[in-house]
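Researcher: Good morning. I'm working through a list of sequences from a screen, and I'd like to move beyond sequence-only analysis. For each chain I'm collecting a predicted structure so we can compare shapes side by side. This is the next one on the list. No need for commentary yet; just the structure.
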Amino acid sequence: MPFPNWSVLAENIRFFKDNGVVGVFEEGTYNTPGGDMEELKNYLLGKVMYDPSLDESVVVDDFLQNYFGSDGAAAVKVYMTLMEDSVKKTKFYMGENFDWTAPFLTPDAVLGAAKAFKGAEVEEGKHKDRLENAMLPIYYVAMLRWDEMKAWSAAEGEEWVLEDGLGDAFEFFSGACDKKGILLMNEWGNDLEWLKGELGL
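Model: Good morning. Structure tokens for this chain:
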């Protein structure tokens, strides 16, 4: 799921350093590939733990450009901004976990991110594969709230950029998961078959 904590990671490291901490163990998604922006978070944490004085915005921008390519980076940046802004707007406190109905996961933010991802002109290859992986958290939320998302899109007159049918969306999602080697949807062992059941497919 979207877990927009990237803006506080460097700040937290500096807080630890300023208060005498000499060793930090950081844990992200440990039981499967596919955590939200896990490559960016790991890269940022590694860089800032080595040198806490680094400007994290420069580190993030450098990573996005090189990992996703220019157009892909722009789409991911829109996603990150939409999620951060929605967290602030809804005053949502991100604890250790939450589900797909979390208040910050508004149709406006979720579908705005989907539109940015789908509009990115990225050639087939590693950048496209990486962009598909980055959009999986958006698909996850959209699929589990499919009727709500479609109804909001129609009511707002917003273009629907995801697949027409839920089954087709799941087919894309599961294919991308297989390609990436994603085994689980959460820490508690729920897999693609569980998700398929939740979606009523």
